[in-house]
Specification:
single chain
Length: 297
C-alpha cells in the first residue's frame, strides 16, 4: 500500500511536470515518420520479484525491490548547433526484506542533471553534470551528496551510422567509479535502430507508425548513504545488477508513449551493514521484473 500510493502520487506529479517539458522540448524536435528520437522525460515503475540472500550470520533471507523513476526537463533551450537543458530526477527504491532482522528500507535519489549538446558537421558532443542526493533522508549529511557526470563524442561515419566514445563517473554499477562509454548507433532501415552504445544498448523496431518493439539492457545499481536507526551511525548501502528486457511502446498522445516491458534481473549483489558490521553481503538469485511507464519523445 505504501508503494502504490507513492507511485500514484509521482505519476500525477509527472503528468504536470512532463507536460511542461513536452511543450518546451517537443516543439524543438521534428516528428519521425516511423522511428522517434530518444526519450527526454519519463516516469516508470519497476517491480523485481523476491530473491534469496545469504546472511553474514549464516542464515538466509529474501528481498523484494520496487522502483519509481522520474525525469522531467523544466528548462530546455536550443539554438543552431546547440542544445542545453536542466532536469529534475527523482528515484525511489523500496526494499522489502523477509526472514531477516533487516528492516524494510525506502531509498531516494534526487538529481539535477545539467546537459549540453553541441553538433558541428559530423560530430555530436554531449556533456552532463548531475549533482544529487542518494539517501534514506533520515538524516542528511555531506555523505549523502554525490556528483555524477559523463562526456560522449559521436561521429557520423555515414548518414545512418554513428560511432561514439566517452567516459562516465557515477554509481549505476554499485560503486562510485569511472567507466568507458562507447559503441555504434546504426539505423539500417527507417523502421529499425540498433543503438548499441554501452552501458544501455537498445534495439528498436517500429512495425507500424505509433508502435515500438524493443529489447534493452540497463545497469540497475546504486549507492545510498543510510542512517542506522539503532546506533545512529551511517553507512553505504550498495546494490549491483543488470536488467535486460523486451517490451512494447504505444503512442498515446503527441510525443507521449506508453511503455510495458518484462525481463530478467541478474548479476545482483546486495551489501547492507548494521552497527558497522555487514548484515548482508550476498549475491542475489536471478529473477524476473516488469516495468511500465510513460516516455516523452
Amino acid at each position: 500500500m505504501r508503494a502504490m500510493s507513492f507511485v500514484v502520487g509521482l505519476v500525477m506529479a509527472a503528468s504536470f511536470g512532463g507536460a511542461a517539458a513536452a511543450a518546451g522540448a517537443g516543439t524543438a524536435r521534428e516528428d519521425a515518420e516511423m522511428m522517434p528520437e530518444d526519450e527526454f522525460s519519463w516516469v516508470t515503475y519497476t517491480y523485481e520479484d523476491r530473491v534469496g540472500l545469504d546472511l553474514e550470520t549464516g542464515g538466509s533471507g529474501e528481498v523484494t525491490l520496487q522502483e519509481v523513476d522520474l525525469l522531467v526537463l523544466p528548462i530546455y533551450m536550443r539554438k543552431p548547433g546547440w542544445e542545453a537543458s536542466v532536469g529534475f530526477g527523482f528515484r525511489w527504491n523500496g526494499l522489502d526484506f523477509s526472514d531477516t532482522d533487516v528492516e524494510d528500507m525506502d531509498l531516494y535519489t534526487v538529481t539535477l542533471p545539467l546537459d549540453v549538446v553541441h553538433t558541428v558537421e559530423r560530430w555530436t558532443l554531449w556533456a552532463e553534470l548531475s549533482p544529487g542526493l542518494h539517501s534514506d533522508f533520515e538524516h542528511l549529511t555531506g555523505d549523502d551528496y554525490r556528483t555524477a557526470g559523463m562526456g560522449l563524442a559521436m561521429y557520423a561515419i555515414r548518414t545512418n551510422v554513428q560511432v561514439g566514445l566517452g567516459l562516465a563517473y557515477d554509481s549505476y554499477f554499485g560503486e562510485d567509479n569511472f567507466y568507458p562509454l562507447g559503441g555504434v548507433d546504426w539505423r539500417p532501415k527507417d523502421d529499425l535502430r540498433l543503438n548499441l552504445v554501452f552501458p544501455r544498448p537498445r534495439i528498436t523496431w517500429a512495425p507500424v507508425h505509433g508502435v515500438l518493439v524493443f529489447a534493452d539492457t540497463q545497469p540497475a545499481g546504486d549507492v545510498w548513504n543510510v542512517r542506522d536507526a539503532d546506533s545512529g551511525g551511517e553507512y553505504d548501502l550498495k546494490i549491483e545488477g543488470l536488467r535486460s528486457a523486451v517490451g512494447v511502446e504505444y503512442l498515446v498522445a503527441p510525443h507521449t508513449w506508453l511503455q510495458v516491458a518484462a525481463g530478467a534481473a541478474y548479476d545482483r549483489h546486495y551489501e547492507v551493514r548494521r552497527n558497522g558490521n555487514k548484515v548482508v553481503d550476498s549475491d542475489a538469485d536471478d529473477t524476473w521484473f516488469v516495468r511500465a511507464g510513460l516516455m516523452l519523445r
